[in-house]
Structures are given as C-alpha cells and as structure tokens.
Amino acid sequence: MPKITEIFFDCDNTLVLSEELAFEACADLANEILETRNIPDRYTGEQLIKDFVGQNFRGMMISLQAKYKFEMEKDELEMYVKKEEDKVIAKLEAKAVPCVGANEQLDKLFAEKKYHMAVVSSSALRRVVASIKKVDQDKYFDEDMVFSAATSLEKPTSKPDPAIYLHALKKCGKTAAETVTVEDSKSGALSAVRAGIPVIGYVGSYAPDMHAEMSTRLLDLGVKIIMTHWSEFPKCLEFIENSPAEVTQSSL
To answer: Which residue windows are coiled coil (predicted)?
Structure first.
C-alpha cells in the first residue's frame, strides 16, 4: 500500500460539535417550508438529525421534497439555502466547540509536518470556515484546503456523492491510496468509500448508547476502523498505514 501523506477531515461533529446547533436552525426553516405547502408534519432539530445527518441543507431539501412529494422552484430553494447558512453561522459563532480531543491531535499533526491536511465537508464553505475559526482550528489548514460539496464544486452536491472527495484529491494532488479521512456519518463515510479513500469512522460525537450501533453501520459501509475518542487517532492511523489494501476491519 502506498505511504499515507494526506489526511482529510470532515468538519461537522468530526472536528467541531456543530450538528445540533445547525439542525436547530434547519428545523425552523424546514417547518416554514412545510407550512407553506399545508403539510402538517413538523420537525425538531433532533428529528432532522435522525433523518438527514451528513447531508447539507440543499441535500436535505431535496430529500424533503421527495418524502413529501412537492417541488421547490430553484430561486426559492436558493433563497432558503442562503437563509439557512446565515442562521447556522450565527449559532456556530456563538456556541460552537471542538470535538473532545480534536485540537490536541491537530496540534500534534501540525507540529510533526508529516502529513498534509485538508477539511472536506458537505456544508457551505462560509459555515465550515466559521466553525473552524470559532474553535481555533483554522490555523491548521491553508485557506484553499477547505473544501465544500455545497460551494467548491461547479455543480453543488452533498455527500454521499463522492464528488467532493474526488475534487479534494485532485486539488491536493493525491491519490486515494495516499489518503485517509475521518468521518462520523453514514453519508460522509459512503462518500469517501466511493472515492476509494480509507476511512476512520468517528463515533465520539454520538450519545454513548449509540456508539455500538453507529460503529456497526459505519463498518458495514466499508469504514476500516472505528474511533470513539480522538485520543485513539494515532492508533487508528497506524492501523491503516500498516494494513494491506484489502484490510480486515477493526474497532478499538
């Protein structure tokens, strides 16, 4: 197996505890959209996370239209996408905190200078940048090494589409075999797996009683190893670096 020289990180609930804050704002807008269609169902942030975790707002709205069988005009969708971005960024700038132990590992990686690092997210670029700045992680990543499926691509998309990972590989000048990524969601993990990138599945941002279930789900998708706390990252990375291309999956 080629030497690992690149590490990609998902942002939301992988580097930054942001999903609950973001989904609070998303739920308000989703309910507004449902109300304008005279659809009686309403979402809480928690319910949205359950149905749509790992998708960006654009992807959520596409799924919502499919679920409730209605259509949004492009201009209306774009208006809500921008509205959601502003609401979420305001919440993140006020309340976002890093995932426990993430900054310590980023510090070590940054000091070692053994690996190049990038952020690969479904979320809008403004939101990702706001998140990592709030928790003092922006210093670890060059400005042009933060990639967004909603913003960086010619045609906006969302994980589990592998397009954003393929784009990041191209921009970084890396092959999938030289790269490892850290993902917490099914859609994010599947995006990376489809791009051929070995995945460390992080479950530490889920409630403890969800760890076993999420570990199983992620491993079933092709994730190589499960990480429950960021302190386990060096062992997880070592596992992937020392494994052949077709590797037995593991959970620390």
So the answer is: none
